[in-house]
Amino acid sequence: MAGSGYTDLREKLKSMLPYRDNPKGPRDAPVEPPPYERKRRYHEDSASEPSDYEEQQQQQKEEEEEARKVKSGIRQLRLFSAEECAKIEARIEDVVSRAEKGLYKEHTVDRAPLRNKYFFGEGYTYGSQLQRRGPGQERLYPRGEVDAIPEWVHDLVIRKLVEHRVIPEGFVNSAVINDYQPGGCIVSHVDPIHIFERPIVSVSFFSDSALCFGCKFQFKPIRVSEPVLFLPVKRGSVTVLR
What we know:
The protein is α+β, with helices and mostly antiparallel strands.
């Protein structure tokens, strides 16, 4: 101890540790406040953090803003009468029948549980068909690998959309039929922006349904969160997505 210049251990410790003689110095140790000060400071600190209620309010505002943005890109029209729907639905049933008989090209028909998809004009790879997963990996099939758009689609559907100025003449080069069984759906997705020109136009037949935006899916078993926006879709209605 003598060799270090100190004869008393207390003097050495005093030189090594922050001490209270200089409360404004950079090495000051924090002084523990009395109990009542701790309680008051706790309340002040906790008041600076958002409460559960405030967080819920903020989340609700964000979801409302997201729903507003989604709505701004949607247009709906009721164009097809019950009689026109019935005529088109009979044609769709014929497509299903022809597919079951194997009368279409291989890539025209895509089957999944509770949902069959029929590509006409153009078809593309997606989902489990992709060699590399992720947005932007979808690819068109080579020309001629799916069947041409049936004439009845031009005559009964596309022509009416053009007449009502939903789309311009010559806009459509691909028509897809999604045939859902009871309980069937398709998970949240964005139609590939490098393949699809906007707007994307869908026409609903056979029954009323809904489009849900902002859902999060979990699988095995399948579960889904509440949507940010629930959009009712009536039989015979046209939905334009920009």
